[in-house]
Amino acid sequence: MIEYKEKKISIEEYNEIRTKVGWKRLTDRQAELSIGNALTMFAAYDGDKLVGIGRLVGDAAVVVYIQDLIVLPEYRCHGIGGKLVELLKKKARSYAEEGEEIMLCLMCAKGREAFYERHNFIARPTDYLGPGMIQYIRSV
Predict the structure, then answer these.
(1) Is the CB of residue 33 less than 8 Å from the CB of residue 51?
(2) What interhelical angle do 28-37 and 11-20 show, nearest 10?
(3) What DSSP element (H or E) covers 94?
């Protein structure tokens, strides 16, 4: 049975789960700041094995982003990612006071749009929202 915990995982766990899904390994400094500066993290465990994570970043007032939603390949299609999204949405909702609205955003990997649409996210662009954009900045 999968257990979900609201907790910030270790640098080692973070880099290990990232590399297991083919994402680049971060420097220890980057991983530490990424974890430490997150608003919150949820971790999914199968016994002692970390099988999924989700992280919220943002200002907790106007905009919050789902970042690093990761589920190990052998654990996909079992509802773990969906449960992590729902936990993250509930947490994001908790930041808004009565009468307030918070934007919950994410940047989805190509081909994963349908997963997020099932959780009521809309793809951009729309008639009133432009496309999401990104730029990588490398130190020189």
Answers:
(1) no
(2) 100
(3) helix 80-94
Question: 3-state class of 65 per DSSP?
Answer: strand
Share of the chain above pLDDT 70, in %: 100
pTM: 0.91
> For tokens 């918070």, what's the residue?
102
129: tokens are: 């929202």
Cis? peptide before 125, omega within 30° of 0:
yes
Q: In three state form, how does the secondary structure of 28-63 look?
A: HHHHHHHHHHCCEEEEEEECCEEEEEEEEEECCCCE
What amino acid occupies position 51? V
- Cα–Cα–Cα angle for 23, 119, 64, nearest 5°? 65
Q: pLDDT tens digits, residue range 19-67?
A: 999 999 999 999 999 999 999 999 999 999 999 999 999 999 999 999 9
